[in-house]
Amino acid sequence: MANSPQFIIDGLKATVEGKEILKGLSLSIKGGEVHAIMGPNGTGKSTLASTLMGHPKYEVTEGSVSLNGEDVLEMATDERARAGLFLAMQYPSEITGVTNADFLRSAINARRGEGNEISLIKFIRQMESKMKELEMNPEFMHRYLNEGFSGGEKKRNEILQMMNLDPSIVILDEIDSGLDIDALRIVATGVNAMRSEDRGFLIITHYQRLLNYIKPDFVHVMMQGRIVKSGGPELAERLENEGYDWVKEELGIVDETVGKDETEFKVPMNTTAPKY
Ligand SMILES: Nc1ncnc2c1ncn2[C@@H]1O[C@H](COP(=O)(O)OP(=O)(O)O)[C@@H](O)[C@H]1O
Ligand SMILES: [Mg+2]
Questions:
Q1: Residue of 37, 49, 200, 262 with fewest CB within 10 Å of its CB?
Q2: pTM
Q3: Dist. CA 121 → ligand 1 center (Å)
Q4: Which atom in ligand 1 lies closest to the alpha carbon of residue 174?
């Protein structure tokens, strides 16, 4: 498979504001595979996503990340996007003054490279057909990026970007949060339509619900800034039925979160309290 991407995260450690949040995380994703990372809040999932995209707040202190043998950590964020990495953020930013269409066209052209820009006609046709698939109102093309969009509209817009950019590794950070069941189904249909041998997915979620619609090949549990357990889809089902406490008990984890000051927890956390 000439086009099948290989994304390898090895022993990744990262700090934010001097606190170590990622504590040695390893994961390999190949084209055609869908990996889900599940975990309670505060375990470092979004930090992983931001670190992989090169967010300047997150400093890598150890480990490596490569895409098709190339060192991702050496690349600036835009170079990572050009290399084929895509992140749908948990909290997409609003950008006043830049329309959705302007933004997407620039992003597509940046990915395609100089001399290979998409024609206006082709761009509009592509946008219209993808927006129809996502049941988005065409007027969203001309609205400022995410400005005044509802939570669900922002998430659909992230998926619209993904569909237009043709990435080789897709990271979706809690794409299901804030979505009602209809929007969830639409988003999942969009994602499933993009599944192929030349694309790999990393789906971050704390609910199993999304995984009823997007069937993962591998499921990983994240706690304390690392992957503590991996399995197949049956692992997600067990988490749905039994929550995360059995994983913590099995591994002797009292507090699954990461990055909090020790002094905040003079009293042990109540680990049996429902999290959601
Ligand atoms: N931008 C940031 N500034 C300061 N602390 C952060 C930042 N991002 C993450 N953290 C720290 O990392 C911990 C894990 O957060 P996060 O990665 O968002 O977890 P999750 O996505 O699993 O809920 C937080 O509790 C916080 O201490
Ligand atoms: Mg998060």
A1: 262
A2: 0.91
A3: 42
A4: 21
Beta strands in the chain (DSSP E): 6-16, 19-30, 34-38, 58-67, 70-71, 85-88, 95-99, 144-145, 169-173, 200-205, 218-223, 226-231
Pairwise CA distance, residues 227 & 39, whole Å: 9
Ligand 1 proximity of 259 Cβ (cutoff 6 Å): yes
Token look-up 């099948």 returns 4
Pocket mutation for ligand 1, best pick of 15, 19, 47, 269 (most atoms within 8 Å of C-beta): 47
What do you get for the CA distance between the two ends of the chain, in Å? 42
Please work out whether the CB of residue 21 comes within 6 Å of at least one atom of ligand 1.
yes
Compute the 3-state secondary structure of the chain and give helix, strand, coil in percent, each to the nearest 5. 40, 25, 35
- CA 153 – CA 147 distance, rounded (Å): 10
Q: Which of 40, 14, 79 is nearest to 204 (CA)?
A: 40
The structural domains of the chain, ordered by start, are 6-90+166-265 (3.40.50.300)
Contact 222, 206 (CB under 8 A): no
Give the gyration radius of the chain's Cα atoms: 19
How many angstroms separate the alpha carbon of residue 117 from the centre of ligand 2? 34
- With a 6 Å cutoff on the Cβ, whether 3 touches ligand 1 is no
Probe target for ligand 1 pocket from 15, 16, 20, with the most ligand atoms within 8 Å of CB: 16
Name the token pair of 194.
């993009």
The minimum-distance atom of ligand 1 relative to the CA of 57 is 1
Q: Report whether residue 258 contacts ligand 1, using a CB cutoff of 6 Å.
A: yes
What residues does 13 pair with on adjacent strands?
23, 62
pLDDT tens by residue, 83-126: 999 999 888 889 999 999 999 999 999 889 899 999 999 999 99
